[in-house]
Amino acid sequence: MRRLFIQFLAALVVIFFAGGFSYEISAQKRDSFLHSTSSHKKLDCSSCHKNPTSNWAALRGYPDVADFPGHTACNSCHSGRQFLNLCSACHTPGATPKSAPRYPFPAKGNSQEFNTVFPHNVHQDIIASNTRRSDVAVAHFVNASFREQLNADDKPQFNNCAICHQTSDALPKLAPRMPATEKPLADAAPDSFVPKPAFFKDMPSGHATCFACHFQGAQPTGMNCAGCHSLTTRHFESNVVKRYSFKFDHQQKEHSVRDCMTCHLRISQNGDVRTMKDADVPFVACVSCHNHAEDISKEVAKRKESADKGLAPFQCIYCHTPAVGRFPMPPSHEAR
Amino acid sequence: MSLLRLIAVLVLLIPSGTVAVAAQSAGSLEVSGRVKIGGKVEKLTRKRFYLFRGGLEANKTLVEKLKAASVTSRDCFYCAQKASPEFIAWLKAEECESPYCRAITVDDTKKVPEFLAAYDKGLKQFRNKPAIAQQWLTTNLSPNLRDGFYKQQKASISTILGTVKPLQSSMTDSVSVKAIFIDIPVSSGSKPTETFLVSNIIPLEFGGKSYLWACEVEIGSAKKVTLALQVPEAGKTIKKCEVIVKDLPACAAGVCAAK
To answer: Which residue of chain A is at minimal alpha-carbon distance from B94?
Structure first.
């Protein structure tokens, strides 16, 4: 009986210490902190987060939220063991909470709780000008966040899409964008096509570009987190670029001299790209140039011919990879 | 029981009838912003146009409001905000509407008092980092100089439109100078086309004058329709188009005229 009591006591001690030193458990524990609990949702973001944090100069080089909230943000509500249980949300496994370093902020391995909304229509309006010059895409490939000091003799750098979208220097993760409702007519033909990084444009991965205008003053400001970020169900950022056409090269001579809006027709109307049902570059933008006997027209004719002769369907390759080119031709392509 | 059956049949029939009446196809429209003004073709780039269902007659109230609307011009707005002549000159140099239009250079900062004040403020705030003070300069500009004109224009659009909701809007690009509307729902009735109205709502400023268009256009699903904006010669009118041309008030060099 006495032995049983000692074993029970030992078990209690183990459980107690296991809970108390939860900062030592696996990195997955980091993901246990939720912004979406009913208590956290009642709080204003600024009640925990500070912008800028004191470490901005060293970590970012520009004023930013570069660190987790301090202990006071947590222990104003969570005390004792409950507070100790939160260590692993910010601290790496270490000897004691005080000495354990923190994960980089934001913790990249965690699943994301927020979506980012960027209203392209509003930004197109505010940067609109009565310009009489050709502020074409190539004329303003500037990085607004950290461009070099402009020379006074340089041509004016009109603000436009290139502030946020630069030519990629690495190939992003890619996946074909499949028609939502159609079924493919055949298996995809073998294909060795690999797009180049320069075919793509990147997008901001931090606050630098946004804060250049929105750090303070213009809403949503750097402390109005909810102005851009909305809570969502937890997900891992896939960052997979999905396109109907992987063969479009933004840097191709005839493409690069155009304004982005010449083809991205829907972007000046759009308040949130996630709500866009169709491609933001509709087919009509492509055929305004590519409607000759040797390009899209030829492909359309080949598809029709294969259908008429009862042959295996011709898989369109001028714009598409076979993953997409094997699908039925959409009505937009028929009614050129 | 037979009454229930009848109700069930009616319930099934009503929605299908509604769908049949509302059957629509999609049309597209191209508005060309290359406009002949004073014998020269000018480009109205990066300008927003709105599309409304119905023609001039159906949108009579809106058209009357467009004609009667008094919208403060860019120069008068900034003049009223007591912007320095240098600030207004910076905007006018590239026909900008706000400081967000183009990059503010180091040289611009030296010349424009408002830019210099914002830069100095930023330098103190951003730990003496000149690059950030320069690149984030607009975050230290006064609200009215920063985005006041944009907000005023949005408020004017909202007042003019009231409860009227445009079907779509689109902007002219800077190269082809076209605003393209796609997926326009065209009702398929007895006529192969439907009448729509295109307007810029807020007058466009160009060469000392303001221009406002409200033009009727027939859109069908068969092919893309093109609307070429025109300015009528003195004493003449443009068919199916209301074009309101006004002289812009003189609001330069700190003398703010009336609207």
So the answer is: A131
Overall pTM surpassing 0.90 (yes/no)? no
Residues B63 and B104 grouped into a single domain = no
Picking from A56, A123, A131 by the largest number of B CB atoms within 10 A of its own CB, the best residue to mutate is: A131
Q: pLDDT band at residue A22, thresholds of 50, 70 and 90?
A: very low
Same domain, B39 and B136: no
**CATH of residue B192:** 2.60.40.10
Say yes or no: A139 contacts chain B, CB-CB below 8 A: no
Encoded amino acid at A204, one letter: P
Number of H helices, E strands in chain A: 14, 4
Q: How remote is the C-alpha of B187 from its chain's centroid?
A: 26
Considering B93, B122, B145, which residue would you say is the last residue of a domain? B145
- The verdict on residue B8 lying in a domain is no
Are A165 and B80 within 8 A, CB to CB?
no
Q: Which of B116, B145, B174 is the last residue of a domain?
A: B145
Is residue B226 in some structural domain? yes
B62 and B163 fall within a common domain: yes
ipTM of this model?
0.86
Closest residue to A149, CB basis, from B106, B174, B178: B106
Residue-wise pLDDT tens digits, B164-210: 999 999 999 989 999 999 999 998 777 889 999 999 999 999 888 99
Is the separation of the CB atoms in A149 and A164 below 8 Å?
Answer: no
Which one of B45, B98, B169 has the shortest CB-CB distance to A126?
B98
In a domain? residue B130:
yes
Dmax over CA atoms of chain B, in Å, equals 87
226-255 of B, contacting A, C-beta below 8 A: none
Residues B218-237 have pLDDT tens digits of: 999 878 899 999 999 888 89
Q: Choose among B235, B22, B93, B189: nearest CA to A133.
A: B93
- Residues B181 and B227 both lie in one domain: yes
CA–CA distance, A251 with A244 (Å, rounded to integer)? 18
Q: Based on the structure, what is the number of domains in chain B?
A: 2
Q: Quick check: is B151 in a domain?
A: no
pLDDT of residue A1: 57
> Please, are residues A281 and B182 in contact by the beta-carbon 8 Å criterion?
no
Q: Is the pLDDT of residue B17 over 50?
A: no
Contact state of B147 with A126 under an 8 Å Cβ cutoff: yes
Q: Does residue B165 sit in the same domain as residue B129?
A: no
Distance from CA of B9 to the nearest CA of A (A): 30
Interchain CB distance below 8 Å, B168 and A159: no
Q: Are B194 and B187 in contact (CB under 8 A)?
A: yes
User: In chain B, positions 151-180, which contact chain A (CB-CB < 8 Å)?
Assistant: 154, 168-171, 173-176, 178, 180
Domain extent, residue B92, equals 76-145
Asked whether the beta carbons of residue A158 and residue B101 sit closer than 8 angstroms, the reply is yes
% residues pLDDT > 90 (chain A):
51
Largest Cα–Cα distance in chain A? Answer: 94
Cβ–Cβ of A213/B139 closer than 8 Å? yes
